[in-house]
Amino acid sequence: MRSAISWTAREVEARNYVKKQDPRKDFDRLTLILEEGNEFGDASKEWWNESKEKGDPASDPIWGDIASIMRMGRHVNVTIIGVFQDLREAAVGSRGLRNMFRLILMGNSTPTSGR
Predict the structure, then answer these.
(1) Which end of the chain is more exposed for a tag (fewer CB within 10 A), N or C?
(2) Of 64, 72, 55, nearest to 11 (Cα)?
């Protein structure tokens, strides 16, 4: 997942560079699906806490890539779809990203839920 996120962030940068040179340039749709977002958030935090060096930022920089994709991607036809069990700010790296998910669908279904 980290590799896909990093690659997508670089793709957004490249597309924005091209778009600046040719404002009429259109791009094919690129969608990154952040599946099991809560698990990824927990794993990201754990990995970063074990891997970071002295002087590194407190939170995993991968969330900066996600923020860039969400802020700059729409302009060049790149979207993130996040699948979370509980979309709280802590689940998205505590970086103000929760409200950037434009459409939030929530579902909770059990065999007895419609009675």
Answers:
(1) C
(2) 72
Determine the Cα–Cα distance for residues 81 and 37; give it in Å rounded to an integer. 10
Report the alpha-carbon distance of residue 45 to residue 12 in Å, rounded.
Answer: 24
**Does residue 112 carry a pLDDT above 70?**
no
Q: Across residues 73-93, what is the average pLDDT?
A: 80
Residue 107 is encoded by which pair of tokens? 């579902």
Answer whether 100's CB lies under 8 Å from 48's CB: no
- Look up the pTM and report it: 0.79
Alpha carbons 98 and 77: distance in angstroms, whole number: 20
Which two three-digit tokens encode residue 66?
A: 């996600």
- The values of phi and psi at residue 30, to 5°, are -125, 125
First to last CA, the chain: 39
